[in-house]
Amino acid sequence: MKSFAKILLISVALQMQQAIPAQEAIGTSELVQANNAFAVELYSCLAKQPGNFVCSPFSIDTALTMASAGARGTTARQMAKVLYDSNTNADLHAEFGDFLDRLKGINTSDTQFLVANSLWVQRGYPFLKPFQELLHNNYQAGLMQIDLTGWPAEFNPTVAAAARKQINDWAANQTGGKINEFLPRTLPAQNTRLILLDAVYFKGLWAAHFETRLTTNSVFQIRTRESVSVPTMHIRGDFPYYYDEDFQALQLPYVSNRLSMLILLPKKNDGLSELEESITVPRIEHVSLTGDSQQKTIAVSRIEQVCQLISMRTVDVSLPRFTETSEFNLEEPLKAMGMIDAFQEDNADFSGITTGKPFFMEAAIHEARLSVDEQGTEAAAVAGLSFADDDKSSPPPAFVADHPFLYLVRDNVTGTILFMGRVVDPSKK
Length: 429
Known about the structure:
Elements: E1 6-15, H1 30-46, E2 53-55, H2 57-68, H3 73-82, H4 90-103, E3 112-122, H5 129-139, E4 141-146, H6 157-174, E5 192-203, E6 216-223, E7 226-243, E8 247-253, E9 259-266, H7 272-278, E10 286-291, E11 294-299, H8 302-309, E12 311-320, E13 322-329, H9 331-337, E14 360-372, E15 377-388, E16 398-400, E17 405-411, E18 417-423
Parallel strand pairs: 1-5, 3-4, 12-16
Antiparallel strand pairs: 1-15, 2-18, 3-5, 6-7, 7-8, 7-12, 8-9, 9-17, 10-11, 13-14, 14-15, 17-18
Helix pairs in contact: 1-9, 4-5
């Protein structure tokens, strides 16, 4: 059997109460198109489970892209295909670094936005400097050399617990205390050699907030014969709005006009499944991405189509307050998307990370939390990858979200989807 070493890659994304009005659309780059294609495809996989859920495809994408810097051969090609990356060389990471710099423009006097990355490496382990330097130069990942497990001696649970606390404290500091203990007690494990963190923090308010005095309990139709009474917010205002025979779309901007929440509400009470299936159907142009012996086409999704067709309209809005927390094991969804070798101890190739024992991806996990109230939106997400060894003229339209709907938090400038989810039962926490 091959001998592998263990590495943990974790991405943390936090979105706190924020608000932003609509802003003129700016053409998306190939990288953003790739990121959003990954987001929609991942959502499609995760949506197979029942009930509410929320995820941060941006966080997961960032984590996987950083990990791909150390992948080689078929493993690298599969990861590039899943991530819709047009290349697997350093140009990708330089472009991603420039993209992250653009996102810093979200941070204004009205909006807080933070991206922080770090590498927690086992002290004394033979990591390759080019990998560390690439992540430092393009993702500003700070290098923290600590003892994760007691290596090279026997695994020391006390050492692992101390490392876990130090890492969790860093994550809590970067996320305003909203994510405090995302590393489970099982990590670091016996062969953990690296933990990579990506933290994103965002805070703001709605551009037009909902008056609390107008909030009333209203019926939300979960399914044909089942409903719940939930606190529902109300507002009339001018918002970007779109409708067709299948669904309505409403864009609720946040204060700085940089970010917004886009809500897709099916016309039929039981139309969410059909809507979810339709968002991945090619609607307009295609962008071909060609890489090492592989080609994948980005189909501009229905979401992008809606963003192009949406226009200002006076709308009567009814929206339930909701909070959702979700946890995912991403291994099967990522395998279904084509990232197979990374999880196989005999086939994985992450030789760009270390000169020591080979790595394979032991686990891929994700947890996200999002809440919406009268003031704005709050969300947090954690993604983790663990590598181990083998051992207006007429009455305004009414946008009444009283049945299941899909939503996403989106950067209006780059078009990047940061968070994505659905509400089936807003009474569930």
